[in-house]
Amino acid sequence: MTKNILLVNPVPSDYPPLALMKISTYYKKLGYNVKYIEKINMFEDFRPDLILITSLFTWNFDDVVRTCLYLRKQHPESKMYLGGISASLLQKDYEKEFKGKDINLHFGIHNSYDEQDLDYTLTKKDYSVGYTTRGCPRKCGWCMVWRMEPNYIEYKKEYWSKFIKHKRILFYDNNILKASISHFKEVIDYMKENDLSYDFNQAMDARLLSIKHMEIFKGSKLKPIRFSFDSMDYDGAIQRAMKFSHDYGFNDGSVYVLYNFNDTPKEYYYRMKEIIKMNTFDIYPMRFQPLTAKKKDVFEGKHWKGNRLKNFRLTLNRFFNNSVIGRGVVLEKFERIFGKTPEEFEKLMDLKDINERNEKLAIKTKEKIEEKNELFEFNEEEIQEIILDSEGLLTRKDAINILKNKR
Question: What whole-number distance in Å separates Cα of residue 375 and Cα of residue 292?
């Protein structure tokens, strides 16, 4: 009798469900009926023998629990397993919620499925995803990678190349630069030989970047080039990595910048400003969430209490699309928004209500832009002639108003 397998992604995200994509391939090879659903759906004509549920972010805990309990009630005879990052980090919490419900938990990577091809019918993405390495030797306090993947592994070409089905690839390696040069070169050479566009989406460790890496990157379609500036430990290394990128022509760059961990607002201001100076990298502010957080954006770091987190978020949302500080933001604009010094930034973040200040600044900025645009409506020589005739008594704006009245 053909078995029915139900794969469930309770809270879809921008990240394709890699584990379910591999599991789907595994069971389809066995001739089983596989159905994939997102969120909660009912299939009266599909009675699963096995239900496999994934989980990603810990702050989706309530939604994952609700989905599992609902499916348990709908299909009381089915075997049910919950796996994924959230299930691994919050194992005891899920066990408590599922007590007596016959819902099994899986910790970490399931080796039985890990080498399977990815079933791209489960996602509508137009790019491939995968790993060429696993793990990370760094043991950063904010990171779960070394807890779930304690050993650093370099996969053979036969393993990672089979995941590539598109002309664009997002690699999820957590520390590709820790790999041997031979492995690194093999991966990048494959990208060049097959004319593939690629992205190390989890960012690269700037402290490990060398000229040798950049020489290997040269001529490939790495876009964007990503780094992280998660703490002051990266100071010096990140500036060097950005300069290397610029020197080798990789000017489409992004930097993840963590805040709300052990950093101070003054340190955060410094890190943002160092990236702004390079002028070719987007800044992605990343608010720290504890590894066991069941709710998002609740935790306050010891140096970010009071109004600081709220004011920073409000300022990002007011002046930048999707809270990303885009490349090309000139230093003058950065300082108008965040202050000219770390001390001024901290004072702004401590305001009782930053909205009033932000609105005034936005209006002033708009007027400045409009004034700048008006300058181009008049001949520069005409403007300078009026100013000279007045022996310096008239400003540039006065000269423009005189020319306006003449028209």
Answer: 55
Paired strand residues for 82: 53, 105
User: Are residues 39 and 87 part of one domain?
Assistant: yes
| Cross-strand bridge partners of residue 282 | 254
Regarding whether 383 and 359 lie in a shared domain, the answer is no
Q: Do both 16 and 159 map to the same domain?
A: no
Provide the residue-wise pLDDT of the chain in tens; the chain has 407 residues: 569 999 999 999 888 999 999 999 999 999 999 999 997 766 667 899 999 999 999 999 999 999 999 999 999 999 999 999 999 999 999 999 999 999 999 987 777 788 899 999 999 899 999 999 999 999 999 999 988 888 999 999 999 999 999 999 999 999 999 999 999 999 999 999 999 999 999 999 999 999 999 999 999 999 999 999 999 999 999 999 999 999 999 989 999 999 999 999 999 999 999 999 988 899 999 999 999 999 999 999 999 999 999 999 999 999 998 889 988 788 999 999 999 999 999 999 999 989 999 999 988 765 555 554 454 566 777 777 777 766 566 677 777 777 766 65
Range of the domain at 86: 4-105
Which residues does residue 32 pair with via DSSP β-bridges, in sequence order?
none
- Separation CA 245–CA 252 (nearest Å): 9
Rg (CA), the chain: 27
Residue environment code for 388-399, b if the CB has 16+ CB neighbours within 10 A, otherwise e: eeeeeebeeeeb
Residues 136 and 53 both lie in one domain: no
Same domain, 101 and 124: no
The reported pTM is: 0.84
The three-class DSSP label of residue 285 is: strand
Asked if residue 232 lies in contact with residue 271, where contact means CB atoms within 8 angstroms, the answer is yes
Report how many domains make up the chain: 3
CA distance 36 to 43: 11
114, part of any domain: no
- 85-92 contacts: CB < 8 A, separation 24 or more? 85/55, 85/56, 85/57, 85/58, 85/144, 85/148, 86/55, 86/56, 86/57, 86/58, 86/60, 86/61, 87/55, 88/148, 89/58, 89/144, 89/147, 89/148, 89/291, 89/292, 90/58, 90/61, 90/292, 90/294
- Vertex 245 angle, CA 273 and 224, to 5°: 85
Contact criterion met (CB below 8 Å) for 200 and 168: no
